[in-house]
Amino acid sequence: MRGQGVSHLSRLELQILGDNTKMGWGLLAPIRSQTVSRSLLYNRRLPHSSFTPYFFQHFQPPSGLTLPSETMAKDMTLLWGSGSPPCWRVMIALEEKNLKGYNHKLLSFDKKEHKSEEVMKMNPRGQLPAFKHGDKVLNESYAACLYLENQFKSQGNKLIPDCPAELAMMYQRMLEGLTLHQKMIDVIACYWKVPEEKRPSSAGEWSSESLTTEIKLWEGYLQKTSGGFLAGKTFSLADVCVYPTIFTIFRFRLCEERYPKLAAYYNRLKDRPSIKASWPPTWLENPRGEDIMKDI
Amino acid sequence: PCWRVMIALEEKNLKGYNQRLLAFEKMEHKSEEVMKMNPRGQLPAFKHGDKVLNESYAACLYLENQFKSQGNKLIPDCPAELAMMYQRMFEGLTLQQKMADVIYYNWKVPEGERHDSAVKRNRESLTAEIKMWEGYLQKTSGGFLAGKTFSLADVCVYPGICYVFHFGLCEERYPKLAAYYNRLKDRPSIKASGPPTWLENPQGQDMLKDI
């Protein structure tokens, strides 16, 4: 049945596919701009490079029962870019709510596809993510996440805690996450503005006091909060919204020894199914980014 | 941001809360009292029991969630209005940022680093943003940002819209925005929580006159 990963495949089919847990993203580069069904894109068992794109388009799980969550997701469309934390937030939320089979298209920031007519039609701001459910447009990632939890409360994982203290903490950390994200963007933008030849070899110059203070604050938050998640004992919208940013900072080589609690949080959540399933494809090919954050 | 929380408290009929008016000009937002409640040294700083909610949007969302059954309902049931509410709420943060980039440019940027080109760019960006919101109000029927009912979108974005008019935005140029601004001025929750310093001085500078 669709929507249940690869459990429907026969043992022979699984053997052919191999048990490579690395998603075949390098393979996806040529078909980056094509719409593919979500189950193919996120099928973790498909190996790296032994199949052609043709395989992707023609390998279809047997059609059978369509799950209710897929019916709902059919009216959803997501235009996204790889490595964009806002896009990743929405994808994590969709996974957590078991909304599979939504229409989506991976676009390339490098090729300025986020300014294409297709995107502009859905989002006049020319930004990704651009998300729609029926005729309801939710281009702001936080708006999309809050909407999805509100509308699909009873399916998938509960993302808003009942406990008032955890609820308050969740909202607070969610919104503080925007500050963290902005400060990270400021540092990264600064780095990219300077041409390669002019970048100092020691990354000391990229050390930003503002971002350092901010990250220290978050390290402190994780020290004080027991339970392993940003809001407390359960995974919540705070984690959905902030984890992608924290992940990005570590990808750009934030020192794990200097921020042990943050590093532990980052590493622990890496394997959460919703996060693993929506991992930015370009980062699988290239797991470590530039060491912009090395001296933070 | 402070005004948002106050509007939300009024809408939810939460009166009699402890409050202190502090002066930004006297740097009181960096005082020990504030830092204890908000290590970021920012206002608003809001607490309910031991639950700290210093982010205005967090406080508003929390208040509606916890006091759903009292005061006015701030989150619509209709999914289309709900989606519109969340979308406009968060777009409101962009409006606020662009507004601050223009209004607070000289306050934020040290004299030696100021550029006319940056000022021009910020103003153009704000103009485009405001035109977008004028467009939103043209397209949305019902008189409120999310549609037919007053919602968290209005709670969070109205203060910003009020702000741009306070700084001289031309009402004739943006008739829908002006109508929205004037219509909501007299809403009880907004009237009750309007910035006291603005009442003394209803027309602020005209920095945004030409936007």
Describe this structure in words.
Chain B: Residues 78-203 form the GST C-terminal domain. Chain B: Keywords: Transferase. The complex is a heterodimer of chains A (296) and B (211). Helix content of chain A is 46%, strand content 6%. Chain A is mainly alpha-helical and 296 residues long. Helix content of chain B is 55%, strand content 2%. Chain B is built from 10 helices and 2 strands, in the order ααββαααααααα. Chain B has helices at residues 2-11, 32-37, 56-66, 79-103, 105-108, 116-139, 152-166, 175-184, 188-193, 196-200; strands at residues 47-48, 51-52. In chain B, strands 1-2 form a two-stranded antiparallel sheet. The longest helix of chain B has 25 residues, at 79-103. Chain A binds chain B through residues 124, 133, 135-140, 142-144, 146-147, 150-151, 160, 164-165, 167-169, 171-172, 174-176, 178, 217, and chain B through 39-40, 48, 50-55, 57-59, 61-62, 65-66, 75, 79-80, 82-84, 86-87, 89-91, 93, 132.
